[in-house]
UniProtKB/TrEMBL annotation:
Residues 6-59 form the Helix-turn-helix type domain. SUPFAM superfamilies: Winged helix' DNA-binding domain. Residues 139-202 form the WYL domain. It comes from Streptomyces salinarius. It comes from the Bacteria. This is Helix-turn-helix transcriptional regulator. Gene3D superfamilies: Winged helix-like DNA-binding domain superfamily/Winged helix DNA-binding domain.
Length: 239
């Protein structure tokens, strides 16, 4: 058994035993590897964000939080390739890139057999040109969207005009490989789209923003016909 299937199986072994603990020696015997290999695997799972933990002393060992892990998921080779293609879009400077990286590590541990092979082969054939969104800007935008707070932007328009303005974030639009923050602009008193790689600075104000419907702010713009991604439909509750 190579490492990727073993990581997946290791998680399932701990899930099956939970809330009981399993010793490294027992896990090593189960997978016919050395205790050192099991220790390395468990450390890799921890670094990937899998909720495994260790307890010391009599009766100690390794365990996992079943409530924070997924049951077995069997991906087809096509589904695994689709996931790789989707994850590739989230390059190091894209929104939520850090969370995407840890999520992708969790997905990788669930891939076995043909699915794992297909994912590895496609991943080796994809390259990206990262966008130029700075990490502080990306972090500030993510936080403002999560907290629903007003954001203070320094922005450069397509014509090169610089401006500072306070905005009330409503959501995100992606088009032609670019990301836009859609927000109510207090300066213009209207909905506006701000391309992330043109935001030179973004600072949270801590002020709670008024709620705005994303579709309402897009009315009358070139993006008025934007629709929610089909792949996200199952995540959105019906009205």
């Amino acid at each position: 058994m190579n490492r990727t299937p073993r990581l997946y199986a290791l998680v399932e072994e701990l899930r099956a035993a939970a809330p009981r603990t399993l010793t490294v020696a027992a896990l090593a015997a189960r997978f016919e590897v050395s205790t050192r290999t099991v220790q390395r695997d468990l450390q890799a799972l921890m670094e990937a964000g899998v909720p495994v933990r260790t307890t010391t002393g009599r009766g100690g060992g390794w365990s996992i939080d079943r409530a924070m892990t997924l049951p077995p998921i069997r991906f087809t080779a096509e589904e695994a390739s689709a996931l790789v293609a989707a994850l590739a879009v989230a390059d190091a400077s894209a929104l939520y890139a850090d969370a995407v990286r840890t999520a992708s590590q969790k997905i990788v541990t669930s891939l076995t057999g043909p699915a794992s092979t297909a994912a590895e082969e496609l991943a080796a054939r994809i390259v990206v040109l990262p966008t130029r969104t700075s990490e502080p800007v990306r972090t500030a935008v993510e936080q403002a969207l999560t907290d629903g707070t007003v954001l203070r932007l320094s922005y450069v328009s397509a014509a090169g005009q610089k401006s500072d303005r306070d905005v009330e974030p409503a959501g995100l639009l992606t088009a032609d490989g670019k990301w836009y923050l859609i927000a109510w602009c207090r300066t213009r008193q209207a909905g506006r789209g701000f391309r992330l790689d043109r935001i030179t600075a973004a600072a949270p104000t801590g002020e709670q923003a008024r709620p705005h419907e994303l579709a309402d702010l897009l009315l009358g713009s070139a993006a008025a016909g934007a629709v929610q991604p089909t792949a996200l439909a199952s995540l959105i509750p019906p009205p």
